[in-house]
Amino acid sequence: MDNQIVFSDKDTIIMKLLHYFITDKNYKPVVLKGIEDEIWLENMDSDYKIIRIVTHYIHNEEQLSFDLFRTKKIVKSIEKKIVSFNVNTLSIFLNLGENVSLHGDSHIDCIYVDTLKDLQKYSVIKDFFPDINKKLVFNEKGVELFLKITDDIQNKNKKEAARIEKIFTMKKPIITYILIALNVIVFLLQIVLGNDYMVGLFATYGPFVRAGEYYRLFTGAFLHADIIHIAFNMYALYVIGSQAENFFGKIKYLVIYIFSILTSSLLSILLNVNSFSVGASGAIFGLLGAMLYFGYNFRVYLGNTLVRQILPIIIVNLLFGFLMPSVDNYAHIGGLIGGLLISIGLGLRVKEEKGQRLNGIILSLLFVGFLIFMNFFYIK
Fold first, then answer.
1. Beta strands 38-42 and 28-29: pairing type?
2. Is 154 in the same domain as 286?
3. Catalytic residue among 242, 281, 343, 364
4. Which domain holds residue 229?
5. Do 230 and 275 fall into the same domain?
6. Does residue 275 carry a catalytic annotation?
7. Among this protein's residues, is 103 annotated catalytic?
8. Burial status of residue 369 (CB atoms within 10 A of its CB: 0-12, 13-18, 19 or more)
């Protein structure tokens, strides 16, 4: 006589909920040490970034209060890792004592599901997961249901792994090489034709720009003061640009670079009034702004990279710029803001959030419009 695997009603509910949140809502399991009888799922693009499916028995109010306390502590640690605040969490309890009065806490909502029909009792489900009941209907039962759900989740994980591999697999940074070559060629021309001549003709300088020499807003970014200046900037462009080009794609990367030149030059001539400005550092800060946006959106995969690498590089370089009078830090700030905003407007290759992209485009245009107004209409 064949042994049969028997699934309880609770097991079936858990499997169906996991199938829904992972395959339909793009949640991913969170591995937490020391956590038993509960499943944590995360999706940083969802209103509820954390979903908990709790299977252990909560038999009284004290145990529920302790569960909420422990949940808040774990969520706080996750917030630090992903650089987020007030992460909304939904706890789905499957086993509550009769006398337990279910309640949530700040940014933690709780529901009790004895049967799948209970889901419709809660406004959080109706508001944020309105299709859940339809998605939880399966023709399969028992082992067949388990096999189908397992197979679907595995296929989803394979697709997600392929998507992430496509994003992070390094490709040859052709545009970065071209930009470096252009900067080097211009620097050689500075040596041949004379640095003063090239700076006087092409450097970013407010009075000349306002007099009609608008090309200086862009050409100044390809000039450099000396060999150390260009060597440092080209090394930074190679390291940061290669990553940005890989993550955003060649066309978006080039748009970010050019837009960052524009915003860095506009802020520079607004606040750095009577000084010539040269160098690619404003555009490079724009690429750092783009990496900041990318890092925030992929912080789950990058771990602490955002906090330990990208942010420190930006902060240290800005502080260094403020301490060195010869450094045009206004260009750095203008490039950083411009690169961040236009990156939001362009969007990431694997995330098509039209509302967020529209906001980014609007903010980018407002920022440039404000700088143009201040430079060419406000200042007489």
1. antiparallel
2. no
3. 281
4. 171-378
5. yes
6. no
7. no
8. exposed
